[in-house]
Amino acid sequence: xxxxxxxxxxxxxxxxxxxxxxxxxxxxxxxxxxxxxxxxxxxxxxxxxxxxxxxxxxxxxxxxxxxxxxxxxxxxxxxxxxxxxxxxxxxxxxxxxxxxxxxxxxxxxxxxxxxxxxxxxxxxxxxxxxxxxxxxxxxxxxxxxxxxxxxxxxxxxxxxxxxxxxxxxxxxxxxxxxxxxxxxxxxxxxxxxxxxxxxxxxxxxxxxxxxxxxxxxxxxxxxxxxxxxxxxxxxxxxxxxxxxxxxxxxxxxxxxxxxxxxxxxxxxxxxxxxxxxxxxxxxxxxxxxxxxxxxxxxxxxxxxxxxxxxxxxxxxxxxxxxxxxxxxxxxxxxxxxxxxxxxxxxxxxxxxxxxxxxxxxxxxxxxxxxxxxxxxxxxxxxxxxxxxxxxxxxxxxxxxxxxxxxxxxxxxxxxxxxxxxxxxxxxxxxxxxxxxxxxx
Length: 440
What we know:
- By secondary structure, the chain is an alpha+beta fold.
- The chain folds into two domains: 3-151 and 317-438, 3-Layer(bba) Sandwich (FAD/NAD(P)-binding domain); 159-312, Elongation Factor Tu (Ef-tu), domain 3, CATH 2.40.30.260.
- The protein is built from twelve helices and 17 strands.
- The chain has helices at residues 10-21, 62-72, 77-83, 96-108, 139-149, 194-206, 229-233, 286-293, 318-321, 346-364, 377-387, 413-435; strands at 3-6, 26-29, 53-56, 85-86, 91-94, 113-116, 129-131, 152-159, 162-164, 174-175, 187-192, 261-267, 274-277, 304-306, 309-316, 327-328, 331-336.
- β1 (3-6), α1 and β2 form a beta-alpha-beta unit.
- α1 (10-21) runs parallel beside α10 (346-364).
């Protein structure tokens, strides 16, 4: 008996892979290229929309721990990411086109996965299904989902611009990773003195923003992790200097001093022909992006491969709807995965797909759902989906704040994070060892 997976994004591909690896036939449905969401352009699976960075690799970081846990659970995507990486200092960043193609080839070539390039307009009435249609689920299916689940929540997500490398003015730009971590040319840095920054800031906070015509929201919520740079700047003149434009860990070789502020550019593809403006998600009008960002040294004549855009993401009120195993409480044969569950971030979405896939298999085999210890990053995220936080439910990415503290107090943050990561992996390995052949 097969299991359906709807959506071939990051979460859907991971779910399909887990199910197929368990020897169960997967019917994978993907509406591209017949229909695209407002943010997607490629026919390939696992398309990266906002950024090409999968965040930190260091195991003693929240993002690094999450990826290590995913590797130990048999992630399909991370080997593809490793093969398509581009220099990014201490982060794992990929050539997004090559990455999507690699994932597509891997999923399409699996003998237990059958691909259906068609849009799903209804939730299946029978059988086990994993819905991984993402935060931009097509209207018809979204209506069915939110009718079943009792409504939805929304927030607005933004993507940063991408510029062509050949158009950069390199005499004001220097290559360096913060604190010298990783490859020396992982980032290009556009340094600004105080006067340049203050002039730029004054124009940024008054620049014209694009209207949000297509979104019927009088008071849109903006997720903190993807805050448009102009909204962030509006909180105060030094907000950017302590945020995406912080100069710490960098020294301008032209002056020998730390700049007043810095815009970092991260390589977007392996050939280095395109660069992403790190932390510069924006909803400014396209001409305004060119004008205002052109005030940054090195971007005076920049040509844009893609301007920044803003779109609405929609997610379930998961604590009222889902279990920590990503199943619908009232319909245990129906699972959800990805950002629609309220996890935030590429790898967080993919990790939820792993867990939904595992638990869909266990459901078919009559086993209890698997919930990882909340001392693990994936277990803590799963618990957050089930229970939420203290206030209104909002998307959550990997961070050490959602993991229970250590029994002993460690004052040094790096040592504390390292100890939390070590405990997490020990607990995960214990679960895997106890499950052995009966894992799924």
